[in-house]
Amino acid sequence: MTACLGPTGGARVGQADASGDGSLRIGLILDNTGPQSFLNAPQLAAARLAVREINAAGGHKGKPVELLPETISADTAAQAKALVAAEADVVIGPTDSSRAPAAIDVLSKAKITIISPANAASGLSSHESGGYYFRTSAADIAQAPVLVKLAKDGGAATLAVVFEEGSYGKDLSNAVAAAARQSGLGSVTVAGFAPGRAQQAAAAVKAAAPDAVVLVSRSGAQGVIAELNNAGVAGRKLILSDGAVNQYGSGLGSSALEGARGILPGTFASAHFQGELVSVDPGLKDMTFAAETYDAVNLAATAAAAAEDDAGASIAAALIAVSGGQVPTSGGAGPSGDAAVCKSYQECLDALRAGKRPDYDGESGRISFDVHGDVTTANYVIYTYGADNTATMSGSETASSSGS
């Protein structure tokens, strides 16, 4: 899922001197506008729920944790600057990977920890943040072994990978091809396409006649599915990456995707968690990134409790340890002692008071940050398409990092 350890992990593996003021302030960057604006509500509800529970457990050092007033804007740099001025210790967000660097650059210079619940671009693992950047969502390439497993589970011995040109398509298709070869699939054909120009890629797939086709695409997905259908590739042969999963319905020919499978990152929210979120926002209709946001807030508060300090540097230095990750022997300010799995802030506090190291496993599953701030366990929900070209949840899979 991530590259091997570089020269330094920065604040993630450093020793931090206590420099907080005793008040833990958590900010949000909500950068979803236009068609994506529905993503703001579940993140806000999850953050409010987590803070409510943290404060019910006593807050930070006996003082209530403060969730700073939120704004919604695609200008993440402006939001980040406002949160610096508001003296945030940790910031949850942003959602859009393309906007993340602007926020990271501002916040990391101010020594404020950033935990995104949604960023998936692989390149962010190596973006210079001084060790202040983490994410509770997995990088795009983490799904590669799951896509290959779905192909093999369906009986495939040969595979084609069709990808949309761009960083998402290139990075993930390379990872899928590598995972396929590593898993022993005999033949792997890789073909790229530009949106609206997928005929050549479809022809290459038809000529290769693979047992299964993994489609790695976003905006061009519907067009290439139609071209693949025209080439005789449809239904159960198709496996869709997260960017290609959509409810296509009548936008495609009848039964074009019947039996096809696709994946989306995350876990299905439990009935209890959904109920708690709705108690915060009765009008909530979508749960996307809610679990990852809830976990990000709880991790931040647990790290502050473990460090006995609310400064961003102290939080960053403790996050790997309290997430269940492996702290390099050369550094780290996280707690020591035997690990104790905890699923809430209260349980994590109890572990600390018992002289143990909290290992927070939350609503999004195991986290275990590595030295790049990436999760080392990625969870996916599997969807299967019916004859009406709509997808329904049909299972789940987990992908683990080698930790290299």
Question: Any descriptors?
Answer:
404 residues, alpha/beta, 5-stranded parallel β-sheet, elongated, disordered N terminus
Task: Please provide a written account of the structure.
The chain is of the alpha/beta class and 404 residues long. The chain contains eleven helices and 14 strands. α1 packs across α8, α9 packs across α10 (312-322) and α9 (290-307) packs parallel to α11 (345-353). It is elongated and about 65 Å long.
- The fraction of residues assigned to DSSP E strands is 15-25%
Could you report the average pLDDT, rounded to the nearest whole number? 92
Spans of at least 5 consecutive residues whose pLDDT stays below 50 are 1-7
Structural class: alpha/beta
List the total number of helices.
Answer: 11
Termini separation (Å)?
9 Å
Helix content: 25-40%
Radius of gyration from the alpha-carbon trace, in angstroms: 22 Å
Globally, the shape reads: elongated
Largest sheet: 7 strands, mixed
Q: What's the helix-strand series?
A: EHEHEHEEHEHEHEHEEHHHEHEEE
How many extended strands?
A: 14
Strand order of the largest sheet: 7-6-8-9-10-13-14
In short:
This protein has 404 residues and is of the alpha/beta class. The protein has eleven helices and 14 strands.
